[in-house]
Amino acid sequence: MSDLLKQYRDQIDAIDEQMLKLVNQRAQLAREIGNVKNGGPIYRPEREAQVLRRLTEHNEGPLSGDAVTAIFRAVMSNCRALEKELSVAFLGPLGTFSEEAANKQFGGLSAPVQCSSIDEVFRMVESGQVDYGVVPVENSTEGAVGRTLDLLMATKLNICGEIALPIHHNLLSKSDSVDQIKTVYAHSQSLAQCHQWLNAHLPNADRQPVVSNAEAANIAKNNTNGSVAAIASTRAAELFSLNNLASNIEDDPKNTTRFLILATHDVAPSGKDKTSLVVATKNVPGAILELLKPLADEQVSLTKLESRPSKIGLWEYVFFVDIEGHHQDAAVSKALKELEARSSLLKVLGSYPVAII
């Protein structure tokens, strides 16, 4: 070993010891804060968002912002665990993008709670069997997840956070060659998100939709002749011991799925927030314009407007709306009061920090 290399390694060892001491000091302070909370929510999305924004703004590299965020999310997760290990439900099984989203937001899950459906995620949080739930709500390519929207209308839960997860699909198989593949299994949305690649590289392969990409990976794992492939994540490739025949096969390189975090408690303002609500009005000319006018008057930015059948009457719809700001902000609060007076239904689903990518 050269003298210069030894010097560098000695410096790294010294820094590691300093980091260990500082992280434990942080953990002790987090434990003290837990005592001060006196039974309040352990996970505070608004506070964690403020911490991560500040750190990424002050980051001078060479670590990327994503790397800094991942490191400190893991630190915060382990500090929270000194108070209580949070249980988080998500759409399983292991290897789904829902699990990946939950891990990203909560800094890794030591005791993940897998659910067989989006309905079960809602039930688990509502009944108090878990602390939080993570559900997909929309994809940048394929649009809204209808079941999640329907359940948001019926639940008393609050949205306390959102996760924006870049979705990268891979072709996984026991085979070593794409040429051997005769059947491709995947969730229907994943098949749709990769249809151009499949048309170009596997035009004659049969495409079979299944309940999840993890289930597709399990089918590929149990295939003995190598003729079956799954579209799934790199995490699924590791879990099911599959070969990655092709990476990033999604048609849109910016393909992203948005997930919501469900909780029984509200969230305080973080300084950069979003509010989600559902609103309905009578089917008369100009009704939508009248609904949007209070937002325009108070200069509240509308970021999403999604219609959904109300399931109450034929051809009657409700609208899912996302706006910038927190419901406690003066302008947003005033706009919501006016909107409530003009609508036949208004339900605030939650105010929460804008996703930190």
Overview of this protein structure:
It catalyses: prephenate + H(+) = 3-phenylpyruvate + CO2 + H2O; chorismate = prephenate. Pfam families: ACT, CM_2, PDT. GO terms for molecular function: chorismate mutase activity; prephenate dehydratase activity. Its EC number is 4.2.1.51, 5.4.99.5. It is found in: Cytoplasm. With 357 residues, the protein is α/β, with parallel strands linked by helices. It folds into four domains: 15-83, Up-down Bundle (Chorismate Mutase Domain, subunit A); 88-166 and 256-263, 3-Layer(aba) Sandwich (D-Maltodextrin-Binding Protein, domain 2); 170-246, Periplasmic binding protein-like II (D-Maltodextrin-Binding Protein, domain 2), CATH 3.40.190.10; 273-353, ACT domain (Alpha-Beta Plaits), CATH 3.30.70. It has twelve helices and 15 strands. It has helices spanning 3-37, 45-58, 65-83, 97-106, 118-126, 146-154, 188-193, 195-201, 213-221, 234-239, 287-297, 330-342; strands at 88-91, 113-115, 132-139, 143-144, 158-166, 170-173, 183-187, 206-210, 228-232, 243-246, 256-263, 273-280, 302-309, 317-324, 345-353. The strands form three sheets. Strands 1, 2, 3, 4, 5 and 11 form a six-stranded mixed beta sheet that branches. A hairpin with a 3-residue loop joins strand 3 (132-139) and strand 4. Helix 2 (45-58) runs antiparallel to helix 3 and helix 11 packs antiparallel against helix 12. The radius of gyration is 23 Å and the shape is globular. It starts with a helix and ends with a strand.
